């Protein structure tokens, strides 16, 4: 990068994105900001970015295991209210659309927490294990507030918003932490972590499937798991040698991150992915209960929750498998290609599962396929952004990506029950989720055709 990088660091030069695949810096860097631009297709040690991470630092698998366990337990509180929503609706005297705000509040809290984290560059300034531990313990405490019978609906919404705000210290921090140990196998590492996030998000449904009919058992169990996850990472995780240097907050960092075309396309694909993902995760259990009661006459609303929860757990387990396999495939085949394929498949499942409702075995098959592919590309968007963004501000870039993507989920989480209130049945309600992945494919194709793809997965795109 030579003189051009020196000029950029001094705030006097522009780097044009061309065959070199370098980030576009326009206007020149403000004085005092120093950025390390990502390598085109080589890791720090000269190896190709991709594959199994055999050239990454020793000890990486131990630390990844710590993060996996922490993520599994630490994300258990996300859908704790969604899993027991029928009980909470009865307790607070609310309807389906109003009940959606108990999940929407988590998304809003997560977005606010993520933007606050980005505002103060927390993932770059504080040790990631500390941010993770504090976030998990805070989320557990906020989730525990739902155990109070006199909390009321308004108090429950505040509790859920605080839960989401604290969880903003868990997920982005874990992704940042994995990047300190993995460069060549970063896609796989992030894929595994998103897989554990998926399993962790399914813990309240698993507790329900195992017979936890008392909603307080689900709330206690998810809070306890989240605390243990936070302490586990806080005590055992150590940042790796690939850690970027800590930096002080500078408001000028955010415009620089968002002016890079490759970063914007990566975020655009993530938008399409997120439009679908949390709408599915939030409402699939309700879809399954409606399916078993009203289509297949498997019982009443009182005795099918356990069966529906098993279907939801199947969805989440399939997602874990998709993430692990997807990380391997993406590192070897290319992240943008894999993300585009996943969104084509998941978008098709979104259109097909409603009309398939009369055929229960087909619904189960589509559940497994959709569950696997709807999240199998999730980590790849983070990996893409981590590879094309300014490396010294990777934590901030990932946080901005995640926060803006989760902002979009608020719309789909509200839209599905709204459509139901307007008379649209579950035969068609979930099909609205297909819009996102199909638009996300457009962003991935554009990224693959741009010079930015040279920086992704060792030039594989």
UniProtKB/TrEMBL annotation:
Q: Which residues form a coiled coil?
A: none
One Gene Ontology CC term in the entry: plasma membrane
Organism superkingdom: Eukaryota
| Cellular localization per UniProt | Cell membrane
Residues crossing the lipid bilayer are 64-85, 97-119, 126-145, 157-175, 187-207, 219-243, 264-284, 304-326, 362-385, 397-420, 426-448
Q: Which UniProt keywords apply?
A: Cell membrane, Membrane, Transmembrane, Transmembrane helix
Q: How does it sit in the membrane?
A: Multi-pass membrane protein
Name by which UniProt lists this protein:
Major facilitator superfamily (MFS) profile domain-containing protein
